[in-house]
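Hi everyone, sorry if this is the wrong subforum. Our group has a chain we'd like a structural model of before ordering constructs, and none of us has done structure prediction before. Sequence below.
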Amino acid sequence: MERYAPEGVECLGTHPMFGPSIPDIRGQTVILTPTRRCTRWLPVIEGIYAEAGAHIEIITPVEHDEIMRVVQGLTHFAYISIAATLEAINFDVAKSRRFMSPVYEIMLDFVGRILAQNPYLYAMIQTNPHVTDLHDTFIGECRALSDLIKEGDIESFVERMKQAARHFANTEAAQRRSDKLINNKIAEYERFVQAVNKYCAVKHLHTERVHTGTLVEVTPLGITLQKNKKKTRLKIENIKLLTDEEYTRWKRAEMTRVAKDVSVYIPKGSDPMVIQRIIEGLSPEIISARIIDIYNQSEEGVSITYRLTLLAEDQRETLQRVIELLLGIGCRQR
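Answer:
Right subforum, don't worry. Here is the predicted structure as tokens:
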């Protein structure tokens, strides 16, 4: 950049370590590689990323290239090699998911994640001169380990693995982090299991459509929702189970509303505004409640008419709950 940029133009190498599918930059790593030709704009750009919550690393361009040859170059090459091997032996990847361990599932998903991206981008990364020399090293290590197994030299294989572990260092921390990843997947499945036979909502991560219904079946690969007589089957990998709060927000934003009036005689000395607030807090299905009429000329007492704005889907049940509440606090229905 410095070679071709006009004099007086500052250059700042910037490498976000995440792709467009990440929904928020908060907590994500951004690498900045300033040189002497970047004094004015470095604090500005760093401030923008910091304010957004990114984790910022500042290193030299040479350090960046040395680290990325492994972080991206070697990692991608290993994953693509696994994918190419699966294709070479005509392995049924989809069928294998029926028999997968948590570690295999995560590995397979990362391989698939790479394959889903633009292959030209990954080809450009692999043809980088800083990466190509790693190919021979990687293939050589694979061949050496394979030779040890073919020769039946178990002790040498074990020693080579121990050497790698000593260089890797802190494998216990790596196991704890991977345990968290595995446990998060298990916890997601458990949330679906706990919701069986309950009415719930799931959001499709690609279409963003929200599906609702009674959860009637859960398997490690998918769920079945039933609404009236219609059943909808969805893959767990494509959906997110909405929390009660998320479901309520969605209903309030997307579902049809209806207005219903309820007229009651309130107990002597009662405050109709307090009763209004009690009604509004009764259920998330109640969007609002307001007083539209007050009549105090009746021998029966003060009559109040409340206009309720309700979500249309459960309006009958919600209205019945409101009436039961009013009767329960001493009101009499007109």
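For your construct planning: The domain at 255-333 is CATH 3.30.70.380 (Alpha-Beta Plaits). The chain has a mean pLDDT of 92.
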